Amino acid sequence: MDLPWAEPWRAKTIEPIRRSTRGERESWIADARYNLFNLRSDRVYIDLLTDSGTGAMSAAQWAEMMLGDESYAGASSYHKLKATIEELLGMPYFLPTHQGRAAENVLMSTLIGVGSEGAGKLVPGNSHFDTTKGHIEFRKAHAVDLTVAEAFDTQSLHPFKGDVDLRRLKDFLEANPRERVPLCIITVTCNSSGGQPVSMANLRASSELCRKFGVPLFLDAARFAENAWFIKRREKGYAEKSVREIVREMFSYADGATMSSKKDGIVNIGGFIAFRSRELWEKASTFNIMFEGFNTYGGMAGRDMGALSAGLREACEEDYLEARVGQVAYLGEKLESHGITCQKPFGGHAIFIDALRFLPAVPRAEYVAQTLGIEAYIEGGVRCVEIGTLLADRDPDTRQDRYPALELLRLAIPRRVYSNDHMDYVAATFANVFARRDSIRRGLRVVREAPILRHFTVELERAL
Ligand SMILES: *Cc1c(COP(=O)(O)O)cnc(C)c1O
User: Fold this and answer.
1) CATH number of the domain where residue 329 is located
2) Of 29, 257, 290, 332, which has the fewest Cβ atoms less than 10 A away?
3) Ligand 1 centre from 307 Cα, in Å?
4) Is 3 contained in some domain?
């Protein structure tokens, strides 16, 4: 028989995790004001809050930590990372930043402006990530979501639900003058639509349109390697290409990229902006020096740049990607076997449960996906994250809750951390909540919230 995939690594160091009782969890989550971000991590058994910065580093990465060059300027660790970015992504210039949103801050300051210079400007893309949208709206500009309609139907089997709707992109670019559109940003894979990939054909066509209208195209590249894996597996003409070749081609269509290294960089902290043009790199470096640090460290320790350089290479290894994406699908299939509806096809880094179908009795105004997240925590000590109305936040002009097309609960799988036995436990937790779903009829109410990115700090109470 064909041998199955298995992880191309074995454990050398382990970290204990602890179970708790249902009674403990009920009181802890009330203390946390029904916000999963407020929980202490030692009160969580299996933590699927995020795949960001939670991956396990390899022996080679830990070795890089010891080799780190902490020189203020011109560190060898910087040059190691620069060479990796040029080799893998084909981008000759880069600026290190402390994480992905810092890269966005510097890039948006460069291209949109600072303060309210962004008023009236528009940034098209495919379901912008929350911090990306935050940096756009903070400058009084607007993010325009042009994702294909299939992305909002959890059961459509469209293989590239991260794709931009090219017809709408063309109409948009025709309708808005160049001065109002400082950049277009395409997120690979598209986190907000379910970790869904963007096809090479779509990147190529989007790039042609942007070039025709003189609009710079940037990739939000946090999960570029997972995206490349899906292209290899699903897109005609790419099965025989290596992931490295696919990655090179993806980036060849962009003028630059922002990166959260906490994802496919497989490090705990870090980010960067990559550029094709020296002029843009120079312009951005002024902001980078002010906000992040000098050009050759920009918010990162030398040792972290070394570990990132190794992590980016490991993320492009095909046996790693097969096991990584395979584990996510393993969890998705288990959940579906219990009758739970998940976003299909399964994403690259996470499973997204359709909360509106899971808890149909809970009113839409009572934060359905957050309610499901709270129930899963109480049931099994599993921590997930809401991708729904809390995250969508209020409209900046009307201050009304924005109801996104989908109300999702995201189960993000950290890289190289949990076993498939952990995945079985997670699936059993949700199966138990599913079995008692008819008794869950009320959700949550906001008690306090911040004016922007409210989901991180919101305080809630049970709606009664
Ligand atoms: C995580 C993430 C970011 C922001 O990066 P941080 O490192 O968390 O600041 C931006 N875009 C996408 C798609 C992400 O997943």
Assistant:
1) 3.90.1150.10
2) 290
3) 18
4) no
- Domain endpoint, select from 288, 315, 342: 315
- Choosing from 224, 263, 453 the residue with most ligand 1 atoms within 8 A of its CB, the one to mutate for a pocket test is 263
Q: Does the active-site annotation cover 310? A: no
Atom 15 of ligand 1: nearest residue by CA position: 222
Domain with 417, as residue range(s), is 22-51+318-462
**Do strands 217-220 and 256-260 pair parallel, antiparallel, or not at all (unpaired)?**
parallel
Tell whether 76 is covered by a domain.
Answer: yes
Please classify residue 15 by burial: count the beta carbons closer than 10 Å to its beta carbon, then call 0-12 exposed, 13-18 middle and 19+ buried: exposed
Residue 336 and residue 282 share a domain: no
Question: Does one domain contain both 143 and 287?
Answer: yes
Q: 186 C-alpha to center of ligand 1: Å?
A: 13
Q: Which atom of ligand 1 is nearest to the CA of 103?
A: 9
Residue having the nearest C-alpha atom to atom 5 of ligand 1: 100
What pTM, to 2 d.p., does this model score?
0.94
Residue 195 vs residue 213, higher pLDDT: 213
Annotation says 263 is catalytic? yes
Q: How far apart are CA 207 and CA 228, in angstroms?
A: 17
- Better-predicted residue by pLDDT, 5 or 109: 109
Q: Indicate which CATH number applies to the domain containing 80.
A: 3.40.640.10
Catalytic annotation present for 72:
yes
Tell me the pLDDT band of 399, cut-offs 50, 70 and 90.
Answer: confident
Catalytic residue among 47, 130, 165, 255: 130
Q: Select from 286, 315, 344 the last residue of a domain.
A: 315
pLDDT of residue 231: 98
CB of 207 within 6 A of ligand 1: the answer is no
- Position 304 in a domain: yes
Residue nearest to atom 3 of ligand 1 (CA): 100
How many domains in the chain?
2
Q: By the 8 A CB rule, do 307 and 55 touch?
A: no
**What is the DSSP annotation of 385-451?**
EEESHHHH-B-TTT-PBP--S--EEEEEPPTTT--HHHHHHHHHHHHHHHHTGGG----EEEEE--S
**Domain contains 96:** yes
Say what the pLDDT of residue 274 is.
Answer: 98
131 close to ligand 1 (CB < 6 Angstrom) = yes
Beta carbon of 262 within 6 Å of any ligand 1 atom: yes
